[in-house]
Amino acid sequence: MIIANHLIFSAYGFWLPNDPRGSWSDFVGSWELYKFGPATKVNDQRNYAKDTHNAALRRAAKKSLKYPPVRFDEAQRNAIAQGFARACGDGHYVCLACCIGHDHAHLVIEQHAREPDVIVGHF
Hints:
By secondary structure, this protein is of the alpha+beta class. The protein has helices at residues 31-34, 55-63, 74-91, 116-122; strands at 4-10, 95-100, 104-110.
């Protein structure tokens, strides 16, 4: 029985579609990134973040991005928090946990009548 969903929101440049540890992407939309390999789609829900991988290759791929990776400052993180709070109120979501980092955010939302992808779209 599912009691909650872990939602992850990433900013541009945080986790690339061809990250050697896997991704949820099924294509790489940039030839500059594709030089570092095809999309590394995974279909399970295991945490891949700490898997060993070629970190130098990952850093080189990030250098080929068209724009610098996004880094949220404190004002932006506060704005994201306010947006999350508003969406929780509007959608009647119960937020069990929230962490807003400098390049991505995590929410744990209590099971809801809406599917997780619809909830993510709302946020």
